[in-house]
TrEMBL record:
Signal peptide location: 1-22
Name of the molecule in the record: Sensor protein QseC
Name of the gene encoding the protein in the UniProt record: qseC
Catalytic activity, EC: 2.7.13.3
Domain Histidine kinase positions: 239-445
Organism the protein comes from: Enterobacter nematophilus
Length: 445
């Protein structure tokens, strides 16, 4: 199970704090032991030199070993702090501190620091040996290594223990602060949990941490796109229901007429022919509705390529030429810029040109000429018909709008499809009556 963000941050903080505390302890231990070693070595050296300043001959006058009398103990004393002994050149101890100093074994060695042990003791000691200037006496000052280590441990503990004690308090404060800082996220989660499935209003961003702001902006952008998609889908459903109602009603009427005309073969044949034409119109309407719906859902194009516009127009003209000839319409292609290319989807651009040619041949009277002309920055599709009135021209291109007085069947979606494909390809579509007569559609880039 995935741990919560608050718990993970708390555990990470605890692990990092303990690791930092442990690393600080090691560094503090190393530095403290080094400093204390220098301090105590210096202390031993000064004490030994001070002993050498004494009149050792007077101390040795009675040929017997003396001990420094013990003083009454007041306060905290440690007999391992320092121990000393003074030897004659022959190794006879003539003076000691009365405690550990009498157990320091005599070994002839050069002056300086050395490690060793007391007699009948396994603890490590650090000794300093010095010889008097006249060479008659040797002074040794010792200190137990454990004393130094305990002192270093006390110093380090006094420095780091408060931080270790403060760690639980810091963890508690961290949990409180995390709960406070993550409260907007918890509120956001509750808002999303109680949000209606069809809600598209933007989420509030006040009080949200800066790190979470991009997530909220992305969600709000997603909701806006979802709202646009829902509006398109609702509009498509409404338009489809409205436009399909009439063709389906006509199909039902023609079916009833065909059933009632069983005794009249001629009337029945006419009804069946109209039924067939109605099915074609309904099929064409459904295809155009589905095409327009798919185009509306596109925000960008995939699988684009460089397309030679001359080849594209030539292919479209060849496809429309047979039905145009049957309708008594001549389609002519004029290529003024054969090298022009555009980046786009071959299928969609072909659909754009086919819709323009289909509209031109469908709504032009018999004997008309449709001219398709390619220029450097545009191509045009123009017929030599009567043109369109200014009122109808202002609404041309609206979905399901067909100018009045049209005899040819249609759904009023062809130019809507053309405009949507052009917009996806960064093209502009302009509609108008040609100066020399007829209706002209210009697609420019």
């Amino acid at each position: 199970m995935k741990l919560s963000l608050k718990l993970r941050l708390t555990l990470l903080f605890l692990a990092l704090s303990l690791a930092a505390w442990f690393a600080a302890s090691l560094v503090a231990w190393q530095q403290t032991t080094d400093k204390l070693d220098k301090l105590f070595d210096t202390q031993q050296m000064l004490f030994a030199k001070r002993l050498l300043t004494m009149d050792l001959d007077e101390i040795r006058a009675p040929e017997r070993m003396r001990e420094v009398p013990k003083k009454a103990k007041h306060g905290h004393l440690d007999d391992d702090a320092l121990a000393f002994a003074i030897y004659a050149a022959d190794g006879t101890m003539i003076l000691n501190d009365g405690e550990n100093g009498r157990d320091i074994p005599y070994h002839y060695r050069r002056d300086g620091f050395d490690d060793g042990r007391l007699q009948d003791d396994n603890d490590e000691w650090r000794f300093l040996w010095l010889t008097s200037p006249d060479g008659k006496y040797r002074v040794v000052v010792g200190q137990e290594w454990e004393y130094r280590q305990d002192m270093a441990l006390d110093v380090v503990s006094s420095q780091l223990t408060p931080w270790l004690v403060a760690l639980p308090v810091m963890l508690l404060l961290l949990i409180v602060l995390l709960s406070r800082e993550l409260k907007p996220l918890k509120k956001l989660a509750q808002t999303l949990r109680s949000r209606s499935p069809d809600a598209t209003d933007a989420l509030p961003t006040q009080g949200v941490p800066a790190e979470v702001r991009p997530l909220l902006d992305s969600l709000n952008h997603l909701f806006a796109r979802t709202q646009e998609m829902m509006i398109r889908e609702r509009r498509f459903t409404s338009d489809a229901a409205h436009e399909l109602r009439s063709p389906l009603a006509a199909l039902k009427v023609q079916t009833d007429v065909a059933q009632l005309s069983q005794d009249d073969p001629q009337a029945q044949e006419k009804a069946l022919a109209q039924l067939h034409a109605g099915i074609d119109r309904a099929s064409r309407l459904v295809d155009q509705l589905l095409t327009l719906s798919r185009l509306d859902s596109l925000d960008s194009l995939d699988g684009v390529e460089q397309i030679a516009m001359a080849d594209l127009l030539q292919s479209a003209v060849m496809d429309i030429y047979p039905p145009a000839q049957q309708a008594g319409i001549d389609v002519r292609l004029h290529i003024n810029a054969p090298e022009v290319t555009r980046t786009g989807q071959q299928l969609l651009l072909s659909l754009l040109v086919r819709n323009l040619l289909d509209n031109a041949t469908r709504y032009s009277p018999r004997g008309s000429v449709v001219d398709v002309t390619l220029n450097t920055r545009s191509f045009t599709v123009r017929d030599n018909g009567p043109g369109i009135s200014p009122d109808a021209l202002a609404r041309l291109g609206e979905r399901f709008y067909r100018p009045p007085g049209q005899n040819a069947t249609g759904s009023g979606l062809g130019l809507s499809i053309v405009k949507r494909i052009a917009a996806l390809h960064g093209m502009r579509v302009s509609l108008g009556n040609a100066p020399e007569g007829g209706f002209e559609v210009k697609v420019s880039w």
